[in-house]
Amino acid sequence: MEVNVIGAGLAGSEAALQLAKRGIKVKLYEMRPKKMTGAHKTENFAEFVCSNSLGASDCTNASGLLKKEMELLGGELIKIARNCAVPAGSALAIDRELFSKTVTETVEDNSNITVLKEEVTEIPDGYTIIASGPLTSEDLANSIKEFTKEEHLHFFDAIAPIVEKDSIDFKKAFWAARYNKGEASYINCPMDKEQYEKFYNILVNAPRIELKDFEKNAKFFESCLPIEVLASRGVDTLRFGPMKPVGLVDDRTEIENYAVVQLRQDNSAKTLFNLVGFQTNLKWPSQKELLQSIPGLEHVNIVRYGVMHRNTFINSPKLLNASLQTRNRKDLFFAGQITGTEGYTESIATGMFAGINMARLIEGKDLIILPKITMLGALTQYISDDNQDRFQPINSNWGIVEPLELPKKERKNKKLKAELISARSVEFIGKIALI
Hints:
Elements: E1 2-6, H1 10-20, E2 25-29, E3 53-56, H2 62-72, H3 77-83, E4 85-86, E5 91-94, H4 96-108, E6 113-116, E7 128-130, H5 138-148, E8 153-158, E9 162-164, E10 174-176, E11 186-191, H6 193-205, E12 219-220, H7 227-231, E13 249-250, E14 255-256, E15 259-265, E16 272-275, H8 284-291, E17 302-304, E18 308-313, H9 316-319, E19 325-326, E20 329-334, H10 344-362, H11 375-383, H12 414-430
Parallel strand pairs: 1-2, 1-7, 2-6, 7-20, 8-12
Antiparallel strand pairs: 3-5, 4-5, 8-18, 9-16, 9-17, 10-11, 11-15, 13-14, 15-16, 19-20
Helix pairs in contact: 1-10, 2-10, 2-12
């Protein structure tokens, strides 16, 4: 028995490892480096192409609960991520190069996995998991479109610039964590009102990279908007978004600034940092001008400019069951961002779930459908709910989880509610014998 897994990104690598550890042979297809995408830079598996953060680690955060559920269910990439972590306060951020290299070696060293560096242009026959990601090649996308009989939806994803730490002026920049929670692992560049207004004027007047004709009608995903799109919504939008200054005080001045630009560690050596929330599609000379208008970054060395690329996803509510199995072909599953789950953690989680359920199908067992009291169950049930008319990508959030009734006096206690929902999920997941 053999399973085709299409794509060696986060979801595909996780799915392959789930199948392999259950003794099932896998053919893992990856088109890079023979055919690259507009966002990937290497041929390694599970490459992080945008931020290097998987989001919050604490179970009282929706993303943190999803990570905990993966660990309980035997997720493989979450273990690797923990081992490749870099300081990021309460978030789980990784050294992207070390993580990708480790995943690649883990997959290639597995005797149950055969890696094929070639493009798949049509959906194969037989047991198959499609985890080709949001940058699925045109030929395979056309094959998927023919199979699904549904128009694809599109939205854009944008990547933030990365800079060298040694080129940052720490006479102006300072280390801090918001509200002094956890280690002071973020670099903060403060702005007064005049500096912010100068920055804003450069941003809103900067030329952008022109979109191709087929991209112009695509949609942005709200949680990963380019900074110039946020800025177009009003002069103070950034100050209440990625540049909010609250809770960030420079101990040297004890001043709460008008706005703050944060930078997050991007590699284990602490030499590279990415700008938090600075996804952009500005032309590169404009990016340089914009970044060098930020106090502390006047002479910054940019090692990777921001770019924007089109993401493709299927209309999952019309096509998938909550097990991630397609409704009209039992041996075909989808996983990762192509399903409309948005985020690194979500990609890994759906890859894990598709791998588990594919194994159960082969073993003649009932497929698992998790209830909405779990974050993964809420996520997979949301994307497979065919009552939706206008499906858009979604990440883990409390709004999709089955609510928990609290006494009236506690209903506004969001922290307590999150703690109880997390405990309920962890208790349920802990009782499931999947492995």
